[in-house]
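Reagents: none. Just compute today. Uroporphyrinogen decarboxylase.
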Amino acid sequence: MWFMRQAGRSLPEYRRVRADVPMLEACARPDMIVEITMQPVRRHGVDAAIYFSDIVVPLKAIGVDLDIKAGVGPVVADPIRDAEGVKRLRDLEPGDVHYVTEAVGELVGELGETPLIGFAGAPFTLASYLIEGGPSKNHERTKALMYGEPELWDELMRRLSAITLEFLRVQIAAGASAVQLFDSWAGALSAEDYRASVLPHSTWIFERLRDADVPRIHFGVGTGELLSLLSEAGADVVGVDWRVPLDKAAQRVQPGTALQGNLDPATLFAPWEVVADRTRDVLSRGAAAEGHVFNLGHGVLPTTDPDVLTRLTHLVHEETER
Ligand code: CP3
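Predicted 3D structure written out:
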């Protein structure tokens, strides 16, 4: 078990070390990366660490002018809307993210038996930030490009897929023991559009990671109708949000696929007995899957009481030992 967004804003010790360091500067400093990645492992005793970074870090590393604004998310100065913009996206070289190699190496030493999960943003979710210029509710410009200029869309997705693959390979080469592809906004698409315009690219990434021999997790939000396709892309584990019970999700993925999830992060604000009951429910439904990694259905919310996360970690450990 681990928590998406376990490293971050719910922890006072995180807010302390980040107090006067901008997010993207923190993501490029091995000392900060190591400290922040370790914080939730030390505090909660979760079974895995997630590498502290952000999905836009490899884009910043190839020179895209972007920033992460607190309370907003990634903001791109010059959004990509045409062939000129797409051409500006160059390949990622390992040297562009030397701090990742350094930080992962240090972390693997410090973590000992605890695995480190590496991650990257999936090409669709990255494309949405690049095209919209920031967070978007309706992804209208992204869809306009996807529907209106399918060849340019494919070229953009090919470039982003190569960047994502390289970013994951750097983390694996430095010692990450699993990787998660975050396609957080894939749920904005119909199954038909996902299959035609996104699936081939995410599949390309998973295929090229097969030789690396590390478990590959594929996650998106609002993907109830897409779970079989997320699985078809070739992941070993499919991450499920809280909208689909895991026993149902188990019927939607390919045979042999494990599930990850899926307690609603908002549950952690309810009385403890509710948290405990719902956690037991997630665990019993997860038993229907061919392997279950306990997690929330999306990231830890910033105002979550960290003590509830610790208590929840202990509960999951007790229940699974029983
Ligand atoms: O603990 C972890 O999971 C590791 C770190 C991590 C961060 N971002 C740190 C972060 C991970 C895995 C991500 C991935 C990420 N980033 C995703 C995919 C996961 C998801 O939530 O669906 C997305 C969509 C982003 C883009 C992004 N970056 C958003 C939407 C935000 C939030 C903006 C806000 O302040 O509300 C960020 C910033 C960000 N990424 C923070 C952290 C700890 C907050 C920065 C801060 O402390 O100021």
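The pocket of coproporphyrinogen III is lined by residues 4-9, 18, 23, 50, 52, 54-55, 68, 70-74, 119, 182, 184, 299 (CB under 6 Å).
Action item: order primers for follow-up constructs.
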